[in-house]
Amino acid sequence: xxxxxxxxxxxxxxxxxxxxxxxxxxxxxxxSMLWGRVLSxxxxxxxxxxxxxxxxxxxxxxxxxxxxxxxxxxxxxxxxAMGMLANAKSISLPSFWIMNFFRNSPxxxxxxxxxxxxxxxxSFLGMRIAFxxxxxxxxxxxxxxxxxxxxxxxxxxQSIHGGQWESARALGYGTLQxxxxxxxxxxxxxxxxxxxxxxxxxxxxxxxxxxTGVQDVITILRQSLATENERALLYFYFAVMLMFFxxxxxxxxxxxxxxxxLKGHAI
Amino acid sequence: xxxxxxxxxxxxxxxxxxxxxxxxxxQLFAISTAFSVAIGLSCATxxxxxxxxxxxxxxxxxxxxxxxxxxxxxxFFYFTLTQLGLTWTDSEAGLQRxxxxxxxxxxxxxxxxxxxxxxxxxxxxxEAIPRSTLEAAxxxxxxRWGLLRNVQAPIAGRVCLPMLTNVxxxxxxxxxxxxxxxxxxxxxxxGQIYNDTFRTLEVMTIVLMIYVVLVSLIAWGLVRxxxxxxxxxxxxx
Lengths: 267, 237
Description:
The complex is a heterodimer. Chain A is mainly alpha-helical. Chain A has ten helices and two strands. In chain A, strands 1-2 form a two-stranded antiparallel ribbon. Chains A and B meet through α1, α5, α8 and α10 of A and α2, α3, α6 and α8 of B.
């Protein structure tokens, strides 16, 4: 009972603060034209197109980059985790070093390196496949995420009690069968919160993709600010921060809820 | 295949640039880590008082900084704080000048970003102490201060150390983004060097190596500290 009223009071206070900010914004729109200017640029910031459709970039591009990156990173991360969990030292040690290398390198620096390491087009069977900056950004972002994910997967697999390995072996299961029928069904449940958290972090990190010159929301923000009144700066930054927050905060909340649900049935 | 050429590395000018950049990176890291830990500790202490309105404000601060990109925060602090009136008048030139340099803006925003992450780390440390432990300590007559010094801090500190390691290495990696707002740190000088020599790939591999080595050293040191401090039999060593 006491905790509930405490949480309610806290929520009420937060709603009050949000309410005050909203009221200030409403009050401010009556005095200055700046909110109107931001509003007219919102479609551009969201999709890179003044008419909102078709999508040419903007925040939609950030989300697109994050989705493709997490897909690539998931595959790479699983492979890397399998390497780290392998019994053969000749596989597990290099995997471990690769994981550590990418986990300890800054996203921005990896992104820059990929920008110059990858060619701008690939010749493949006589075809020329262009390699746009967005593709480089995706690859540059998915490498550190894959390394972090591999660590999450390894942690989840190793958190399964060792006795289960032994009992499964006693029942005559092979290593792959143990993974498939005993370890993974439990481990997957434990890696999902980490995976969701990583996705939220990755979405925040897509802001760094602006250095590759893609038309993401930060690039568009800088371009539109170049033509705007100086006083509009604050308003534009507020709008873009709100976009990231509105997308990432629910995901972070989901990750936390999943994690809390997990605590109940740990072995 | 790539035709790598590292001869620029022998040039004393470029060596000097790298060292200068490294020094600024380390300064930025030291300042922002110190302030992050200070912010985190004070916020977590305030949270432990369980006052609903303080809790509400701190939670909003933490969520705001955790769920927006640090790059955007840095740009926000660098470009808009002057708009909010943080300027001083240069008496010699008679001009309005921003009070925060790029370095100042970067340290401020990194401190707040890291502070939000640290608050979470310390809070989880405090919350990990079982209620029964606290009650037992109170029952044998610990004062409020004694409880904090001899029971809460030692346990919470050890519990939150792995998370703190993550936050601190993350902070070091994020300092590289300060180059976007023209702080003359390692990434910035890397750009200067490859603009000069056109050896982009070589410069980036060297800089990437420097970052990886430094971050690994910091992580390794903190993990060693964690092992050294761990209580035998309490938690995972």
